[in-house]
Amino acid sequence: MTIDGKNPVLSLRNIHKSFGSIEVLHGINLEVAAGEVVALLGENGAGKSTLSNIISGTILPSSGEMTWLGAPYAPATPRDAIDAGVAMIHQELMLLPHLSIAENIFVGRYPMKAGRLDRGEMDRRAQAGLKRLGLEISPRRPVEGLSTASQQLIEIAKALTLNAKLLILDEPTAALGSEETKLLFEQIERLKSEGVGIIYISHRLEEIKQIADRIVVMRDGEKVQEFDTADVPIRTIVEAMVGRSMEQMFPPLARPEDSQVLKVSGLTSPTGRFRDVSFSVRKGEIFGIAGLVGAGRTELVRSIAGADPIQTGTVELNGKDITPKSPGQAIRNGIILVPEDRKLQGVILDHSIQENIAYSNFESVSKSGWMSNRRVKKFASENIRKFGVKGIGSQMANEMSGGNQQKIVIAKWLARNPDVVLLDEPTRGIDVGARSSIYELIHGLAAQGVAVVVVSSDLEEVLGVSNRIMVMAAGRQVGILDHSEANDVSVMELATA
Protein backbone atom coordinates (compact mmCIF):
# COMPACT_ATOMS: atom_id res chain seq x y z
CA MET A 1 0.00 0.00 0.00
CA THR A 2 1.22 3.53 -0.73
CA ILE A 3 0.40 6.90 0.83
CA ASP A 4 0.25 9.53 -1.93
CA GLY A 5 2.86 7.58 -3.85
CA LYS A 6 5.06 6.89 -0.79
CA ASN A 7 5.60 3.45 0.69
CA PRO A 8 4.80 3.39 4.42
CA VAL A 9 7.75 2.87 6.75
CA LEU A 10 5.37 1.80 9.54
CA SER A 11 2.22 -0.26 9.05
CA LEU A 12 -0.23 -1.46 11.69
CA ARG A 13 -2.84 -4.10 10.83
CA ASN A 14 -5.82 -4.95 13.02
CA ILE A 15 -4.14 -4.03 16.32
CA HIS A 16 -6.12 -5.03 19.40
CA LYS A 17 -5.21 -4.48 23.04
CA SER A 18 -6.97 -5.76 26.15
CA PHE A 19 -6.26 -5.24 29.82
CA GLY A 20 -7.87 -8.20 31.51
CA SER A 21 -11.38 -8.56 30.14
CA ILE A 22 -11.55 -4.96 28.89
CA GLU A 23 -10.55 -4.31 25.28
CA VAL A 24 -9.18 -0.78 24.87
CA LEU A 25 -8.05 -0.91 21.22
CA HIS A 26 -10.33 -2.41 18.57
CA GLY A 27 -8.62 -3.37 15.33
CA ILE A 28 -6.50 -0.29 14.58
CA ASN A 29 -4.99 0.13 11.09
CA LEU A 30 -2.41 2.87 10.55
CA GLU A 31 0.37 3.76 8.10
CA VAL A 32 3.10 6.38 8.33
CA ALA A 33 5.41 7.26 5.43
CA ALA A 34 8.96 8.64 5.55
CA GLY A 35 8.98 12.43 5.79
CA GLU A 36 5.30 12.58 6.78
CA VAL A 37 3.60 14.04 9.87
CA VAL A 38 0.49 12.11 10.88
CA ALA A 39 -1.59 13.85 13.55
CA LEU A 40 -3.16 11.36 15.97
CA LEU A 41 -6.17 13.03 17.62
CA GLY A 42 -8.85 12.09 20.12
CA GLU A 43 -10.25 12.91 23.52
CA ASN A 44 -8.50 11.83 26.70
CA GLY A 45 -8.99 8.06 26.92
CA ALA A 46 -9.48 7.57 23.17
CA GLY A 47 -6.56 5.11 23.00
CA LYS A 48 -3.82 7.34 21.57
CA SER A 49 -1.33 6.66 24.36
CA THR A 50 -1.99 2.92 24.33
CA LEU A 51 -1.38 2.78 20.58
CA SER A 52 1.77 4.90 20.89
CA ASN A 53 3.07 2.68 23.67
CA ILE A 54 2.58 -0.37 21.48
CA ILE A 55 4.48 1.21 18.60
CA SER A 56 7.29 2.31 20.94
CA GLY A 57 7.59 -1.09 22.66
CA THR A 58 6.31 -0.09 26.10
CA ILE A 59 3.40 -2.54 25.96
CA LEU A 60 2.56 -5.50 23.73
CA PRO A 61 -0.56 -5.73 21.56
CA SER A 62 -3.02 -8.53 22.27
CA SER A 63 -3.28 -9.30 18.56
CA GLY A 64 -2.54 -7.81 15.17
CA GLU A 65 0.60 -7.25 13.14
CA MET A 66 3.09 -4.44 12.56
CA THR A 67 5.74 -3.97 9.90
CA TRP A 68 8.70 -1.57 9.94
CA LEU A 69 10.59 -0.82 6.74
CA GLY A 70 8.77 -3.75 5.15
CA ALA A 71 9.83 -6.33 7.76
CA PRO A 72 7.82 -7.79 10.68
CA TYR A 73 8.02 -5.49 13.72
CA ALA A 74 7.17 -6.62 17.25
CA PRO A 75 9.16 -4.65 19.86
CA ALA A 76 8.98 -6.24 23.30
CA THR A 77 10.74 -3.30 25.01
CA PRO A 78 11.42 0.37 24.26
CA ARG A 79 15.04 -0.64 23.60
CA ASP A 80 13.84 -2.97 20.80
CA ALA A 81 11.93 -0.05 19.23
CA ILE A 82 14.87 2.35 19.60
CA ASP A 83 17.27 -0.17 18.08
CA ALA A 84 14.89 -0.46 15.12
CA GLY A 85 14.74 3.33 14.70
CA VAL A 86 11.48 4.21 16.49
CA ALA A 87 11.53 6.66 19.43
CA MET A 88 8.83 8.29 21.54
CA ILE A 89 9.18 11.75 23.11
CA HIS A 90 6.84 11.86 26.09
CA GLN A 91 4.90 14.91 27.24
CA GLU A 92 6.65 14.74 30.61
CA LEU A 93 10.31 15.34 29.79
CA MET A 94 12.69 12.74 31.21
CA LEU A 95 15.99 14.61 31.31
CA LEU A 96 18.31 14.58 34.32
CA PRO A 97 18.78 18.27 35.26
CA HIS A 98 22.14 17.88 37.03
CA LEU A 99 23.80 16.24 34.01
CA SER A 100 25.12 18.03 30.94
CA ILE A 101 23.23 18.09 27.65
CA ALA A 102 25.67 15.58 26.13
CA GLU A 103 25.41 13.28 29.16
CA ASN A 104 21.62 13.36 28.86
CA ILE A 105 21.74 12.58 25.15
CA PHE A 106 23.98 9.54 25.66
CA VAL A 107 22.90 8.39 29.12
CA GLY A 108 23.12 4.60 29.34
CA ARG A 109 25.22 4.32 26.15
CA TYR A 110 28.21 6.56 26.67
CA PRO A 111 30.97 6.28 24.02
CA MET A 112 33.97 4.55 25.58
CA LYS A 113 37.67 4.48 24.76
CA ALA A 114 40.14 2.16 26.48
CA GLY A 115 37.52 1.44 29.13
CA ARG A 116 36.91 5.10 29.94
CA LEU A 117 34.32 7.65 28.90
CA ASP A 118 35.35 9.33 25.66
CA ARG A 119 34.03 12.76 26.55
CA GLY A 120 35.40 14.38 23.40
CA GLU A 121 33.55 11.93 21.15
CA MET A 122 30.39 12.29 23.24
CA ASP A 123 30.49 16.08 22.98
CA ARG A 124 31.23 15.97 19.24
CA ARG A 125 28.31 13.66 18.47
CA ALA A 126 25.99 15.60 20.79
CA GLN A 127 26.96 18.88 19.10
CA ALA A 128 26.18 17.36 15.69
CA GLY A 129 22.73 16.31 16.91
CA LEU A 130 22.03 19.74 18.37
CA LYS A 131 23.20 21.50 15.23
CA ARG A 132 20.92 19.31 13.14
CA LEU A 133 18.01 20.79 15.10
CA GLY A 134 19.31 24.36 14.93
CA LEU A 135 20.12 24.48 18.66
CA GLU A 136 23.26 26.57 19.14
CA ILE A 137 24.29 25.62 22.65
CA SER A 138 27.28 23.97 24.32
CA PRO A 139 26.78 20.23 24.88
CA ARG A 140 28.61 20.61 28.19
CA ARG A 141 26.01 22.96 29.65
CA PRO A 142 23.83 21.42 32.40
CA VAL A 143 20.20 20.84 31.44
CA GLU A 144 19.02 22.61 34.59
CA GLY A 145 17.79 26.11 33.76
CA LEU A 146 17.14 25.51 30.08
CA SER A 147 13.78 26.49 28.61
CA THR A 148 11.15 23.82 28.09
CA ALA A 149 11.51 24.24 24.32
CA SER A 150 15.26 23.63 24.49
CA GLN A 151 14.72 20.56 26.66
CA GLN A 152 12.16 19.29 24.14
CA LEU A 153 14.72 19.65 21.35
CA ILE A 154 17.36 17.87 23.45
CA GLU A 155 14.95 14.92 23.82
CA ILE A 156 14.56 14.90 20.03
CA ALA A 157 18.35 15.17 19.55
CA LYS A 158 18.71 12.17 21.87
CA ALA A 159 16.36 10.18 19.64
CA LEU A 160 18.16 11.28 16.48
CA THR A 161 21.56 10.15 17.78
CA LEU A 162 19.92 6.74 17.95
CA ASN A 163 19.26 7.08 14.20
CA ALA A 164 15.51 7.26 14.75
CA LYS A 165 13.53 7.24 11.51
CA LEU A 166 10.15 7.60 13.26
CA LEU A 167 9.40 9.98 16.13
CA ILE A 168 6.25 9.89 18.24
CA LEU A 169 5.72 13.34 19.77
CA ASP A 170 3.19 13.33 22.63
CA GLU A 171 1.76 16.82 23.28
CA PRO A 172 5.11 18.47 22.44
CA THR A 173 3.76 22.04 22.69
CA ALA A 174 1.72 21.62 25.89
CA ALA A 175 4.20 23.71 27.89
CA LEU A 176 5.50 25.93 25.06
CA GLY A 177 4.76 29.53 24.16
CA SER A 178 4.11 30.73 20.63
CA GLU A 179 7.75 31.51 19.82
CA GLU A 180 8.95 28.19 21.23
CA THR A 181 6.26 26.38 19.26
CA LYS A 182 7.36 28.14 16.09
CA LEU A 183 10.95 26.96 16.70
CA LEU A 184 9.80 23.38 17.24
CA PHE A 185 7.75 23.44 14.02
CA GLU A 186 10.78 24.67 12.08
CA GLN A 187 12.77 21.68 13.33
CA ILE A 188 9.94 19.28 12.49
CA GLU A 189 9.93 20.61 8.94
CA ARG A 190 13.70 20.04 8.82
CA LEU A 191 13.26 16.45 10.04
CA LYS A 192 10.54 15.85 7.43
CA SER A 193 12.92 16.98 4.69
CA GLU A 194 15.44 14.42 5.98
CA GLY A 195 12.89 11.62 5.68
CA VAL A 196 11.97 11.24 9.36
CA GLY A 197 8.36 10.13 9.87
CA ILE A 198 6.45 11.70 12.74
CA ILE A 199 3.32 10.72 14.69
CA TYR A 200 2.15 13.94 16.30
CA ILE A 201 -0.29 13.78 19.24
CA SER A 202 -1.90 17.06 20.28
CA HIS A 203 -5.12 18.63 21.52
CA ARG A 204 -4.28 21.98 19.93
CA LEU A 205 -6.20 21.74 16.70
CA GLU A 206 -5.05 25.02 15.19
CA GLU A 207 -1.43 23.86 15.22
CA ILE A 208 -2.40 20.56 13.60
CA LYS A 209 -3.42 22.51 10.49
CA GLN A 210 0.06 24.05 10.42
CA ILE A 211 2.19 20.95 10.87
CA ALA A 212 0.32 17.78 9.83
CA ASP A 213 0.06 16.10 6.42
CA ARG A 214 -2.76 13.76 7.43
CA ILE A 215 -5.11 13.41 10.41
CA VAL A 216 -6.22 10.21 12.12
CA VAL A 217 -9.00 10.50 14.72
CA MET A 218 -9.54 7.92 17.48
CA ARG A 219 -12.55 7.54 19.73
CA ASP A 220 -13.21 4.92 22.41
CA GLY A 221 -10.35 2.72 21.19
CA GLU A 222 -11.28 2.82 17.52
CA LYS A 223 -10.01 4.70 14.50
CA VAL A 224 -13.18 6.53 13.50
CA GLN A 225 -11.99 8.98 10.86
CA GLU A 226 -9.00 9.61 8.62
CA PHE A 227 -8.44 12.82 6.68
CA ASP A 228 -5.90 12.77 3.84
CA THR A 229 -5.14 16.44 4.45
CA ALA A 230 -4.88 18.75 7.47
CA ASP A 231 -6.94 21.37 5.65
CA VAL A 232 -10.10 20.35 7.49
CA PRO A 233 -12.45 22.68 9.42
CA ILE A 234 -11.86 22.47 13.15
CA ARG A 235 -15.56 21.86 13.73
CA THR A 236 -15.37 18.76 11.50
CA ILE A 237 -12.41 17.43 13.48
CA VAL A 238 -14.11 18.15 16.82
CA GLU A 239 -17.30 16.38 15.76
CA ALA A 240 -15.26 13.34 14.75
CA MET A 241 -13.50 13.37 18.15
CA VAL A 242 -16.64 13.67 20.29
CA GLY A 243 -19.22 11.96 18.09
CA ARG A 244 -20.37 9.35 20.56
CA SER A 245 -23.92 9.58 21.92
CA MET A 246 -24.46 10.56 25.53
CA GLU A 247 -25.76 7.87 27.88
CA GLN A 248 -28.74 8.67 30.09
CA MET A 249 -27.05 8.20 33.43
CA PHE A 250 -27.16 11.71 34.83
CA PRO A 251 -29.88 12.79 37.27
CA PRO A 252 -31.91 15.83 36.21
CA LEU A 253 -30.31 19.13 37.17
CA ALA A 254 -31.96 21.16 39.92
CA ARG A 255 -32.05 24.94 39.78
CA PRO A 256 -29.56 26.47 42.22
CA GLU A 257 -30.49 29.23 44.65
CA ASP A 258 -29.58 32.86 43.96
CA SER A 259 -27.25 33.28 46.95
CA GLN A 260 -23.54 33.15 46.16
CA VAL A 261 -21.40 30.78 48.25
CA LEU A 262 -17.98 30.75 46.59
CA LYS A 263 -16.38 33.69 44.78
CA VAL A 264 -12.95 33.45 43.14
CA SER A 265 -11.45 36.74 41.92
CA GLY A 266 -8.33 37.18 39.77
CA LEU A 267 -6.66 34.02 41.03
CA THR A 268 -3.13 33.59 39.67
CA SER A 269 -0.57 30.85 40.35
CA PRO A 270 3.03 31.77 41.22
CA THR A 271 4.17 28.95 38.87
CA GLY A 272 2.16 30.31 35.92
CA ARG A 273 -0.08 27.24 35.68
CA PHE A 274 -3.17 29.49 35.69
CA ARG A 275 -3.72 33.23 35.73
CA ASP A 276 -6.45 35.79 36.40
CA VAL A 277 -9.27 33.26 36.91
CA SER A 278 -12.58 34.61 38.25
CA PHE A 279 -15.92 32.85 38.81
CA SER A 280 -18.62 32.33 41.41
CA VAL A 281 -20.71 29.35 42.50
CA ARG A 282 -24.20 29.63 43.98
CA LYS A 283 -25.81 27.60 46.69
CA GLY A 284 -26.89 24.25 45.27
CA GLU A 285 -25.04 24.80 41.98
CA ILE A 286 -22.80 22.27 40.25
CA PHE A 287 -20.08 24.24 38.48
CA GLY A 288 -18.02 22.26 35.96
CA ILE A 289 -14.46 23.06 34.90
CA ALA A 290 -13.46 21.62 31.52
CA GLY A 291 -10.24 21.74 29.56
CA LEU A 292 -7.49 19.61 28.12
CA VAL A 293 -4.32 18.22 29.66
CA GLY A 294 -2.17 21.11 30.93
CA ALA A 295 -5.04 23.61 31.07
CA GLY A 296 -4.41 24.32 34.79
CA ARG A 297 -7.68 22.92 36.16
CA THR A 298 -6.19 20.74 38.90
CA GLU A 299 -3.77 23.45 40.00
CA LEU A 300 -6.67 25.92 40.24
CA VAL A 301 -8.83 23.81 42.57
CA ARG A 302 -5.79 22.84 44.65
CA SER A 303 -5.11 26.54 45.21
CA ILE A 304 -8.73 27.20 46.19
CA ALA A 305 -8.38 24.33 48.69
CA GLY A 306 -5.14 25.76 50.13
CA ALA A 307 -2.99 22.89 48.84
CA ASP A 308 -1.03 25.07 46.38
CA PRO A 309 0.07 28.70 46.87
CA ILE A 310 -1.73 31.70 45.38
CA GLN A 311 0.26 34.63 43.99
CA THR A 312 -2.60 37.10 43.55
CA GLY A 313 -6.36 37.03 43.84
CA THR A 314 -8.89 36.16 46.52
CA VAL A 315 -11.21 33.36 47.57
CA GLU A 316 -14.43 34.44 49.30
CA LEU A 317 -16.88 32.20 51.14
CA ASN A 318 -20.35 33.58 51.86
CA GLY A 319 -19.04 37.12 51.29
CA LYS A 320 -15.98 36.78 53.55
CA ASP A 321 -12.38 36.75 52.28
CA ILE A 322 -10.92 33.42 53.42
CA THR A 323 -8.11 33.10 50.83
CA PRO A 324 -6.46 29.96 52.30
CA LYS A 325 -2.76 29.52 52.96
CA SER A 326 -3.07 25.84 53.87
CA PRO A 327 -5.51 22.93 53.41
CA GLY A 328 -6.31 23.01 57.13
CA GLN A 329 -7.39 26.64 56.89
CA ALA A 330 -9.64 25.88 53.89
CA ILE A 331 -11.17 22.87 55.65
CA ARG A 332 -11.90 24.84 58.81
CA ASN A 333 -13.67 27.46 56.69
CA GLY A 334 -15.80 24.85 54.92
CA ILE A 335 -13.95 24.12 51.65
CA ILE A 336 -12.87 20.53 50.98
CA LEU A 337 -11.11 18.93 48.02
CA VAL A 338 -11.56 15.36 46.77
CA PRO A 339 -8.25 15.00 44.89
CA GLU A 340 -7.54 13.64 41.43
CA ASP A 341 -5.39 10.71 42.60
CA ARG A 342 -7.39 8.92 45.26
CA LYS A 343 -4.77 6.19 45.81
CA LEU A 344 -1.93 8.63 46.54
CA GLN A 345 -3.82 11.59 48.00
CA GLY A 346 -7.28 10.37 48.97
CA VAL A 347 -7.10 7.15 50.98
CA ILE A 348 -4.49 5.29 53.02
CA LEU A 349 -4.78 1.95 51.26
CA ASP A 350 -3.43 -0.29 54.02
CA HIS A 351 -5.76 1.18 56.65
CA SER A 352 -9.40 0.34 57.23
CA ILE A 353 -12.42 2.19 55.89
CA GLN A 354 -13.35 3.43 59.36
CA GLU A 355 -9.82 4.65 60.03
CA ASN A 356 -9.77 6.56 56.73
CA ILE A 357 -13.06 8.26 57.59
CA ALA A 358 -11.93 9.02 61.14
CA TYR A 359 -8.66 10.68 60.11
CA SER A 360 -10.56 13.63 58.63
CA ASN A 361 -12.96 13.95 61.55
CA PHE A 362 -10.92 13.76 64.77
CA GLU A 363 -13.16 16.19 66.60
CA SER A 364 -16.15 13.88 66.02
CA VAL A 365 -14.45 10.62 67.07
CA SER A 366 -12.20 11.73 69.92
CA LYS A 367 -12.77 12.75 73.50
CA SER A 368 -10.29 14.99 75.29
CA GLY A 369 -7.85 14.41 72.44
CA TRP A 370 -8.03 10.59 72.59
CA MET A 371 -9.46 8.40 69.85
CA SER A 372 -12.39 6.28 70.93
CA ASN A 373 -12.76 2.99 69.05
CA ARG A 374 -16.45 2.92 69.84
CA ARG A 375 -16.94 6.42 68.44
CA VAL A 376 -14.83 5.62 65.37
CA LYS A 377 -16.93 2.55 64.54
CA LYS A 378 -20.23 4.32 65.14
CA PHE A 379 -19.26 7.44 63.17
CA ALA A 380 -17.83 5.42 60.28
CA SER A 381 -20.84 3.08 60.12
CA GLU A 382 -23.23 6.03 59.88
CA ASN A 383 -21.29 7.56 57.00
CA ILE A 384 -20.70 4.25 55.21
CA ARG A 385 -24.47 3.78 55.17
CA LYS A 386 -25.23 7.43 54.34
CA PHE A 387 -22.92 7.57 51.31
CA GLY A 388 -23.54 4.08 49.98
CA VAL A 389 -20.07 2.59 50.53
CA LYS A 390 -20.27 -1.16 49.87
CA GLY A 391 -18.31 -2.60 52.76
CA ILE A 392 -17.88 -2.68 56.51
CA GLY A 393 -15.72 -0.37 58.59
CA SER A 394 -13.05 -2.94 59.40
CA GLN A 395 -12.27 -3.70 55.74
CA MET A 396 -8.98 -2.45 54.32
CA ALA A 397 -9.30 0.32 51.72
CA ASN A 398 -7.08 -1.63 49.29
CA GLU A 399 -9.69 -4.40 49.23
CA MET A 400 -12.30 -2.04 47.80
CA SER A 401 -13.12 -1.30 44.17
CA GLY A 402 -12.12 2.04 42.66
CA GLY A 403 -15.70 3.28 42.95
CA ASN A 404 -15.93 2.41 46.63
CA GLN A 405 -12.52 3.92 47.35
CA GLN A 406 -13.79 7.14 45.80
CA LYS A 407 -16.92 6.96 47.96
CA ILE A 408 -14.69 6.61 51.04
CA VAL A 409 -12.81 9.78 50.08
CA ILE A 410 -16.06 11.64 49.51
CA ALA A 411 -17.65 10.27 52.69
CA LYS A 412 -14.77 11.26 54.97
CA TRP A 413 -15.00 14.88 53.85
CA LEU A 414 -18.76 15.22 53.51
CA ALA A 415 -19.10 14.09 57.10
CA ARG A 416 -17.81 17.58 57.95
CA ASN A 417 -20.85 19.23 56.27
CA PRO A 418 -18.79 21.58 54.07
CA ASP A 419 -20.13 24.62 52.21
CA VAL A 420 -17.99 23.97 49.11
CA VAL A 421 -16.91 20.62 47.66
CA LEU A 422 -14.19 20.56 44.99
CA LEU A 423 -14.17 17.28 43.05
CA ASP A 424 -11.14 16.69 40.79
CA GLU A 425 -11.79 13.92 38.24
CA PRO A 426 -14.39 12.24 40.51
CA THR A 427 -14.95 9.15 38.32
CA ARG A 428 -11.49 8.52 36.85
CA GLY A 429 -10.89 4.77 36.61
CA ILE A 430 -14.42 3.92 37.78
CA ASP A 431 -16.82 1.66 35.90
CA VAL A 432 -20.13 2.90 34.50
CA GLY A 433 -22.26 1.41 37.28
CA ALA A 434 -20.22 3.08 40.00
CA ARG A 435 -20.22 6.35 38.05
CA SER A 436 -23.99 6.60 38.29
CA SER A 437 -23.87 6.38 42.07
CA ILE A 438 -21.14 9.06 42.21
CA TYR A 439 -23.33 11.33 40.06
CA GLU A 440 -26.25 10.76 42.42
CA LEU A 441 -23.99 11.75 45.32
CA ILE A 442 -22.96 14.95 43.53
CA HIS A 443 -26.57 15.89 42.78
CA GLY A 444 -27.52 15.00 46.35
CA LEU A 445 -24.94 17.48 47.64
CA ALA A 446 -26.33 20.22 45.43
CA ALA A 447 -29.84 19.42 46.63
CA GLN A 448 -28.62 20.03 50.20
CA GLY A 449 -27.39 23.52 49.20
CA VAL A 450 -23.68 22.70 48.86
CA ALA A 451 -21.74 24.58 46.17
CA VAL A 452 -20.05 21.85 44.08
CA VAL A 453 -17.14 22.33 41.67
CA VAL A 454 -16.39 19.40 39.33
CA VAL A 455 -13.17 19.17 37.31
CA SER A 456 -13.39 16.52 34.61
CA SER A 457 -11.56 15.52 31.43
CA ASP A 458 -14.63 13.53 30.37
CA LEU A 459 -16.78 15.84 28.23
CA GLU A 460 -19.85 13.66 28.61
CA GLU A 461 -19.48 13.85 32.38
CA VAL A 462 -18.89 17.58 32.74
CA LEU A 463 -21.80 18.31 30.38
CA GLY A 464 -24.09 15.89 32.19
CA VAL A 465 -23.57 17.05 35.77
CA SER A 466 -23.05 20.82 35.49
CA ASN A 467 -25.38 23.80 35.70
CA ARG A 468 -22.60 25.91 34.19
CA ILE A 469 -19.20 25.06 32.72
CA MET A 470 -16.02 27.13 32.78
CA VAL A 471 -13.58 26.16 30.03
CA MET A 472 -9.83 26.59 30.53
CA ALA A 473 -7.03 26.50 27.96
CA ALA A 474 -3.31 26.84 28.70
CA GLY A 475 -3.97 28.35 32.14
CA ARG A 476 -6.51 30.85 30.86
CA GLN A 477 -10.22 31.10 31.53
CA VAL A 478 -11.66 31.21 28.00
CA GLY A 479 -15.40 31.10 28.65
CA ILE A 480 -18.29 30.14 30.93
CA LEU A 481 -21.21 28.33 29.30
CA ASP A 482 -24.69 27.78 30.68
CA HIS A 483 -25.96 24.20 30.59
CA SER A 484 -28.44 25.15 27.87
CA GLU A 485 -25.72 26.39 25.49
CA ALA A 486 -22.95 23.90 26.31
CA ASN A 487 -22.32 20.88 24.10
CA ASP A 488 -19.36 18.75 22.99
CA VAL A 489 -18.49 21.03 20.12
CA SER A 490 -18.84 24.39 21.91
CA VAL A 491 -16.67 23.20 24.81
CA MET A 492 -14.00 21.67 22.58
CA GLU A 493 -13.83 24.75 20.40
CA LEU A 494 -13.05 26.84 23.48
CA ALA A 495 -10.66 24.25 24.94
CA THR A 496 -8.59 24.12 21.76
CA ALA A 497 -8.55 27.87 21.12
Automatic annotation (TrEMBL):
Keywords: ATP-binding, Cell membrane, Hydrolase, Membrane, Nucleotide-binding, Repeat, Sugar transport, Translocase, Transport. Transmembrane segments: none annotated. It is found in: Cell membrane. SUPFAM superfamilies: P-loop containing nucleoside triphosphate hydrolases. GO terms for cellular component: plasma membrane. It comes from the Bacteria. It holds the Pfam family ABC_tran. Residues 10-245, 256-497 form the ABC transporter domain. Its EC number is 3.6.3.17. GO terms for molecular function: ATP binding; ATP hydrolysis activity. InterPro entries: AAA+_ATPase, ABC_carbohydrate_import_ATPase, ABC_transporter-like_ATP-bd, ABC_transporter-like_CS, P-loop_NTPase. It is a peripheral membrane protein. Belongs to the ABC transporter superfamily. PANTHER family: CARBOHYDRATE TRANSPORT ATP-BINDING PROTEIN MG119-RELATED, D-ALLOSE IMPORT ATP-BINDING PROTEIN ALSA-RELATED. This is Ribose import ATP-binding protein RbsA. It comes from Roseibium album. The lineage of its organism: Bacteria, Pseudomonadati, Pseudomonadota, Alphaproteobacteria, Hyphomicrobiales.
